[in-house]
Amino acid sequence: MRGSSLRLRLVLAGAVAISIAIAAALLGLTTLFTAHVERQATDALTVQLDQVIAGLDLGETGEVALTTIPTDPRFTRPYGGLYWQVSEGETVLRSRSLWDATIPLPVDELADGAEHIHTLDGPEGQTLLVAERSVTLPARLGGARTRVAVAMDRAALAEARNAFLFDLIPYAILLILVLNLAGWVQIAVGLRPLREIGSRVAAVRSGTAERLGEDFPTEVRPLATEVDALLTAREADVVRARMRAGDLAHGLKTPLQALFGEAQRLRETGRTEAAEHIEEIVGNMRRHVDRELTRARIAHQGRDAHADVALVVAGLLRVITRTHEGGLRQWDVAIPDGLNVAADPADLSEALGTLIENAARHAKRRVLISAEAQDATQPGQIEIRIADDGPGIPEDQIAALMQRGAREDTRGTGLGLTIATDIAEALGGTLVLGATSDGGLEARLTLPAAHRTS
Fold first, then answer.
1. Above 90 in pLDDT, residue 331?
2. Per the CATH hierarchy, to which homologous superfamily does domain 307-448 belong?
3. What are the domain boundaries of the chain?
4. Closest C-alpha to 417, from 349, 354, 326
């Protein structure tokens, strides 16, 4: 259950609790009904006991007999389930339903008129509910102390209890289903704030919101408050780290410029090889510094930044087509107007500039630049594609090319793609390289769409 759904655990726990509660209620109701039926049976036996006592009189033989028989037909049907018995000394009068059996009354001392209730064994294996009373007959009947008992088969009580239970079971099942449905609705409503928290966390991650807010129920609000506090602390840490990186990068620019000056002086003195080595090392370091400055700038970028993809690409092509390699290529552009990404135009230019320069350098003749909104597959995302018809890169080398500092040939440091990837990830997007249908290389830069355009 540790990794299961919280909703499922609550539903299962509620279902078990409801089932146990209904079962206990069913048992309790059946017990109460049984006690009620037994009281009713005891009251009925008492009435019948009065009738038997009232029916005692002198018979035709001059002996005590039951001259008025109770009207219930079960008294006359052998083992019919309802019995009476009158005991006076050794003389025992009994109903026809007892046939040749007797009610085994216990040895019991009853005061005159006292009544006891017993559960005794009866004929044919029956269990009897017995009402017994001790009476003193009037003088004309001999004045003897007599024990009068009326009994009924407890099976009738069990049948009434079972019938009551079977009648209740369908309603109990229906009640369980209704309560479980109500519990599921209650859980769904109760967990809705947690779903809202998940949605707002996703909004914060995608950049459409800055904080979760406080408009949550009292029980959930502390969680949202702590998450917002954590976001604030993390943002402050990131800002401080980016500021330190930016300060460090700015601090290195002056010493690097000085090293370039030293390389120039070495070149003037004829030490060309040493000067080239220094310039190569300093060039690599400057690219690293520029990369850190770019990342620091992106970290401070506002959430409402936006850049028109068509305008940025048009500006880049005006520059690249003036270069030797760019001027020899055919540039096909398919970008709709008004397509805006959530990025600063300078950051988008830097990321696309690297990809367009690579395409111009390796294309044979033609480069295609296109962009479209991915509303069907990735809502809120815009994909920019730059494809050339060059020799391409084997698929097993693409992953290695994307590693920090890797390069496809000996020209450059390999930081161009890394910087473009860093910009894409910092803006909440991705950069993926793949092969075109004609064997060339295609770069797919996916960035979040801008929420505000102007």
1. yes
2. Histidine kinase-like ATPase, C-terminal domain (3.30.565.10)
3. 1-201, 221-299, 307-448
4. 354
Write out the two tokens for 393.
């890169």
Which residue type, as a one-letter code, is found at position 110? L
The crossing angle, in degrees rounded to 10, of helices 415-426 and 345-362 is: 140
| 366-373 and 330-334 strand pairing | parallel
Strands 381-388 and 91-94: unpaired
Q: Sign of dihedral through CA atoms 242, 244, 247, 248?
A: negative
What pTM did the predictor assign? Answer: 0.52
Nearest CA among 363, 371, 366 for reference residue 341? 371
Tell me, rounded to whole angstroms, the distance of Cα 385 from its chain centroid.
39
Cβ atoms of residues 287 and 415 within 8 Å: yes
Which of 17, 40, 19, 21 has its CA nearest to residue 29? 21
Bridge partner list, 236: none
**Distance separating alpha carbons of residues 81 and 159, to the nearest angstrom:** 13
Higher pLDDT, 68 or 15: 15
Q: What is the largest CA-CA distance in the chain?
A: 161
So what's the pLDDT on residue 349? 87
Task: In whole angstroms, give the CA distance from residue 449 to residue 188.
Answer: 33
Q: What would the pLDDT profile of 178-196 be if each residue is shown by its tens digit? A: 999 998 998 888 888 888 8
List alpha helices for 55-141, DSSP H.
Answer: none
Residue range 318-333: average pLDDT?
Answer: 88
Q: Under CATH, which number does the domain 221-299 receive?
A: 1.10.287
Nearest to 249 by CA among 294, 306, 282: 294
Q: 433 and 441 in contact (C-beta within 8 Å)?
A: yes
Work out the burial of residue 86: count CB atoms within 10 Å of its CB; fewer than 13 is exposed, 13-18 middle, 19 or more buried.
buried
CA separation for the pair 321, 330 (Å, rounded): 9
- Of 362, 350, 287, residue with least CA distance to 319: 350
Please tell me the distance from the alpha carbon of residue 88 to that of residue 30, in angstroms, as a whole number.
40
With contact defined as beta carbons under 8 Å apart, do 207 and 200 qualify?
no
Strands 64-66 and 91-94, sheet pairing: unpaired
What is the mean pLDDT of the segment spanning 381-390?
91
Contact 378, 432 (CB under 8 A): no
SS3 category, 136: strand
Specify the DSSP class assigned to residue 450: P
Q: How far apart are CA 434 and CA 438, in angstroms?
A: 12
